[in-house]
């Protein structure tokens, strides 16, 4: 992505302009913005923004209702001046600004490139006083936001362009409200696929289907008409100490839920062609500096045992001729959840440091890459069996600590001794913090998958807006 201009003149209204070259046609980029999920894809993960209501796409008269900021202020915007294939505008009806008009436009360069422009005219409340007090903060916010938005757009349309010959699919997603699922679904829909969320409550919209994974047997009819299922449902492993009951829930939610799903799919007369199941690099256990690939044997430990049972539970689908992919996830990086979210507060306060001796390897993946790998696995018949969802650049905990501190401009000099972590977290500390797992994505490297964020520093800067 090539950024062309950033212009911020000041007259009655302030003007912010961001223009970037996109690696796809104007038609592709505009279609991406028109599809369901574009708002979710464009919302920076560090911002407190809740989509309350959305109606009518981006055509004239459509409205979006948001809750923004720490005070959850309501922001209502209306779409206007829709020009098919070229531009649209959203104008604040009510919200935090005295005036806000945002024009999105695309300009063709040739059949494979275009210019994306975001032009915002805005005015802060309280006139000159408001601009003096908050003008710099708003300009900085817009710069961070649109750097992120243009990176996301460029990466997504590049992936669409790379696989433009593929047939659009209808894909069901379990665990769609989780950190990964809530990224996978809009990534699918903005690419042109149809996605159904499987939810445990009664379905509220046409793109939802109710299911109860704890039932002894699932109704196969719930899964009719799907080309693929992405199975992400499972108990959170890092939100509390591993008591015996917690470990049982971790195991049962993965193993039993996957087996019931696989059995239901196998009973269909026309089952989905593909089942993509989440798994984890915990499969390999604590292996020091050994380089691990999909061909490596399982290790030992609680997570290793769970992962082996979890993957085996998909057997009925495999036996029915369904292509099964096990996406072995490394540490997923996002400020919205997981390990990175937990690290941010102590690191921002200057209380970060290495964990243990800091020499253990952490195999990681940015959230956008994790979601893109699930999307790819669901639509690429060349991927089957275990697939390591990690970057080609695992780092030690010491390297991770130093890089995060650099990005946040904070010191990281307060180590976390093993005994302290074990006292606080118990068994979980050994398997999640101290285990050394140096994993390589051999299958993804053998395919033409292009990592969006292969290096840790660029991934953290993207995710944190730094």
What is the gist of this entry?
This protein has 466 residues and is of the alpha/beta class. Helices cover 35% and strands 26% of the residues.
Report on this model:
Residues 416-463 form the DUF1731 domain. This is Epimerase family protein. Belongs to the NAD(P)-dependent epimerase/dehydratase family. SDR39U1 subfamily. Belongs to the ribosome association toxin RatA family. Residues 173-380 form the NAD-dependent epimerase/dehydratase domain. Pfam families: DUF1731, Epimerase, Polyketide_cyc. The chain is α/β, with parallel strands linked by helices and 466 residues long. The protein folds into two domains: 2-162, START domain (Alpha-D-Glucose-1,6-Bisphosphate, Chain A, domain 4), CATH 3.30.530.20; 170-464, NAD(P)-binding Rossmann-like Domain (Rossmann fold, 3-Layer(aba) Sandwich), CATH 3.40.50.720. It contains 14 helices and 21 strands. An eight-stranded antiparallel sheet has the order 1-2-8-7-6-5-4-3. It has a seven-stranded parallel sheet with strand order 11-10-9-12-13-15-19, with helices on both faces. A two-stranded parallel sheet has the order 14-21. A hairpin with a 6-residue loop joins strand 1 and strand 2 (14-22). The longest helix is centred in the first third of the chain and has 36 residues, at 127-162. The protein is globular. The two termini are 17 Å apart. The mean pLDDT is 92.
């Amino acid at each position: 992505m090539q950024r062309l201009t950033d212009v911020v003149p000041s007259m009655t209204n302030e003007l912010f302009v961001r223009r970037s070259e996109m690696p796809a046609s104007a038609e592709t980029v505009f279609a991406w913005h028109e599809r369901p999920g574009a708002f979710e894809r464009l919302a920076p993960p560090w911002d407190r923004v809740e989509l309350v209501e959305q109606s009518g796409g981006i055509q004239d008269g459509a409205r979006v209702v948001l809750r923004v900021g720490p005070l959850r202020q309501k922001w209502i915007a209306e779409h206007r001046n829709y020009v098919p294939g070229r531009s649209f505008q959203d104008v604040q009806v009510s919200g935090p600004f005295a005036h806000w008009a945002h024009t999105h436009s695309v300009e063709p360069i040739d059949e494979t490139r275009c210019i994306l422009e975001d032009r915002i005219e805005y005015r802060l409340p309280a006139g000159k006083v408001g601009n003096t007090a908050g003008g710099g903060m708003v300009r900085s916010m817009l710069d961070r936001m649109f750097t992120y938005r243009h990176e996301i757009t460029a990466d997504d349309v590049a992936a669409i362009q790379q696989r433009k010959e593929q047939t659009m699919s209808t894909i069901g997603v379990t665990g769609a409200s989780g950190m990964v699922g809530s990224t996978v679904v809009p990534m699918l829909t903005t690419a042109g696929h149809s996605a159904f969320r499987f939810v445990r409550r009664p379905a509220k919209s046409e793109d939802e289907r109710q299911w109860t994974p704890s039932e002894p047997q699932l109704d196969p009819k719930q899964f009719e008409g799907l080309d693929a299922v992405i199975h992400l449902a499972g108990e959170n492993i890092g939100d509390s100490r591993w008591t015996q009951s917690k470990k049982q829930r971790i195991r049962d939610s993965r193993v039993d839920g996957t087996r019931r799903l696989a059995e239901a799919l196998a009973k269909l007369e026309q089952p989905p062609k593909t089942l993509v199941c989440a798994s984890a690099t915990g499969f390999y256990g604590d292996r020091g500096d050994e380089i691990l690939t999909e061909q490596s044997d399982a290790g030992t430990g609680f997570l290793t045992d769970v992962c082996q049972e979890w993957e085996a539970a998909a057997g009925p689908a495999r036996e029915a001729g369904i292509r099964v992919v096990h996406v072995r996830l490394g540490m997923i990086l996002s400020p919205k959840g997981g390990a990175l979210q937990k690290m941010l507060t102590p690191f921002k306060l200057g209380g970060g440091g290495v964990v243990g001796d800091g020499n253990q390897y952490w195999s990681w993946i940015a959230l956008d890459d994790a979601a893109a790998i699930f999307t790819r696995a669901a639509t690429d018949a060349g991927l089957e069996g275990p697939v390591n969802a990690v970057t080609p650049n695992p780092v030690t905990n010491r390297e991770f600590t130093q890089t995060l501190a650099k990005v946040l401009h904070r010191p990281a000099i307060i180590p976390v001794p093993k005994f302290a972590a074990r006292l606080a977290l118990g068994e979980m500390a050994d398997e999640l913090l101290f285990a050394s797992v140096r994993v390589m994505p051999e299958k993804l490297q053998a395919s033409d998958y292009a990592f969006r964020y292969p290096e840790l520093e660029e991934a953290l800067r993207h995710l944190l807006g730094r």
